[in-house]
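Entry 12.
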Amino acid sequence: MKIVVLGGGISTERHVSLVTASSVCKGLRQLGHKAVFVDMFFGLEDYDGKPEDLFDCEDGHLPGASIEHTEPDLEKVRAMRKDKSPSRLGKGVLEICRLADCVFLGLHGADGEDGKIQAALDLLGVPYTGSDYLGSAMAMNKATGKIVMEANGILTPPWKDITYTEEDIPRLIWEIPVPCVVKTAGGGSSIGVEFPESVEELRDTLTRLLKYGNHIIAEKKIEGTEITVPVLGDRYLSPIEIVPPEGSTFDYVSKYQSGNEAAREICPARISEKDMKTCGEAALKFHRALGLKVYSRTDFILDAEGRAWCLEVNTLPGMTPASLIPKAALLEGLDYPHLCEKIVELSLLTK
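Predicted 3D structure (tokens):
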């Protein structure tokens, strides 16, 4: 098949997306597919050939990609693009997508997971991987996700939906109980997530998070084991246990860096069969309630009483060979290249 793997973009998760998309492209090419990488923000501005000839290039049009220690400087990224238009789609992106049998969405964050690119591809009649625009948009908005959880009897920590300005902070620090978890409503990769323990820390958190926008949720901090559950097709895969570095949380650095700063990811999770079933069934229920398709990954805190507190769902979770879904799929005998191919095949069945 001719497959465009879209990555990059102009979200705070750009670095992660570049690595996901590059990895997927390599995996699909190993199986003989004519897969090519295209950066959604830069497009084909450095490619001089015919769009249809790109599928025959020897290297898959792959970039050099690595996950940096910090989130990307998006102003610097914008300055690098030759086309200074306000468009978030680079040169030739939609044209090359039209020529593909399928577009594999290796995007994360804004424009990729929020339903925008899905809606554009729907209008073009181009098949793509994963969930449609509506399920993606609902899942990306953490407040909407919480509402769907509660409407479907899925346990989630008590929470507040907050839109605010800097002038509201002196009031909010006394209205939000601490310790708590504060998250930007549309963030991902643990960017824009903080864990204030005191009123003073909450004040600083609210000030810092304004750079990501004025919509947040604040939820009760639940103590327990961090569990994430992949869904593939119509069933859940093995729950995975996340063990952050000692004295830390599962943040951007611990997710993506190696060494002492890295979180440990234990698959299968060291929990009972009963707890695995509790988390797995809740993940599948949330996946279906949102109308998601093909694959997703849902995060939980499993407390000492065996209650699985649902936090959020990821509709385009990380897909490097070392990512969580590939680890769970490997337990099912599905290696990385064939997992990428399976996602394409399942997606084509839904379009």
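Annotation: Residues 250-260 have pLDDT under 50 and may be disordered. The domain at 139-155+223-315 is CATH 3.30.470.20 (D-amino Acid Aminotransferase; Chain A, domain 1).
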